[in-house]
Amino acid sequence: MSIANGATRMGRNQAEALMGSTCTVTQVATGSIDQSTGLPTTTTTVVYSGKCRVRWASGSANEVDSAGQILAVQTPTVSLPIDGSGLVLPDMVLTITANPLDTSLLGHVFRVKGVQFQTHSTARRLQVEVLS
């Protein structure tokens, strides 16, 4: 094993030790139209369920002018372990299912905006947007 591979594995262990929350990532697919309601049917498939870490960078709110309104835009990051999270892709929905250190985060829902793949990554860091 190369030095870089060994260091990456140690880094992954350290990164996972900071993942005190748990989450579920689902893929939502729209199916056919329900004839009784006229609404499309949806199915959800769990792609990942396990530990995670939610972070907002300090001072990460950026003000933008949208249609004459000043809005604060924040881009949180959710980190997942490398092993088992490779199928998480943009537009999937991530829900926080447990967070012992701050229970107000429980139930928050995010949409995955971007994913990260690299050779010596210690965690899969996902750019997400807040849905609720």
Secondary structure topology:
Blueprint lengths: L2 H15 L3 E13 L6 E16 L6 E5 L2 E5 L3 E4 L12 E6 L10 E6 L9 E7 L2
Antiparallel strand pairs: 1-2, 1-6, 2-5, 3-4, 5-8, 6-7, 7-8
What are the salient characteristics of this protein?
single chain, 132 residues, mainly beta, Thrombin, subunit H, six-stranded antiparallel beta barrel, 8 strands, 11% helix, globular
Could you describe the 3D structure shown?
The chain has one helix and eight strands; from the N terminus they run αββββββββ. With 132 residues, the protein is mainly beta. It has a single domain (3-130), classed as Thrombin, subunit H, CATH 2.40.10. The strands form two sheets. Strands 1-2-5-8-7-6 form a six-stranded antiparallel barrel. Strands 3-4 form a two-stranded antiparallel ribbon. The model has no long low-confidence stretch (mean pLDDT 89).
Structural class determined from secondary elements: mainly beta
CATH topology: Thrombin, subunit H
Largest sheet: 6 strands, antiparallel, barrel
Outline: globular
- The value of Rg in angstroms is 18 Å
In whole angstroms, the N-to-C terminal distance is 44 Å
Looking across the biggest beta sheet, what order are the strands in?
A: 1-2-5-8-7-6
Taking all residues together, what is the mean pLDDT?
A: 89
DSSP summary, beta strand count: 8
Corresponding CATH architecture: Beta Barrel
Number of domains: 1
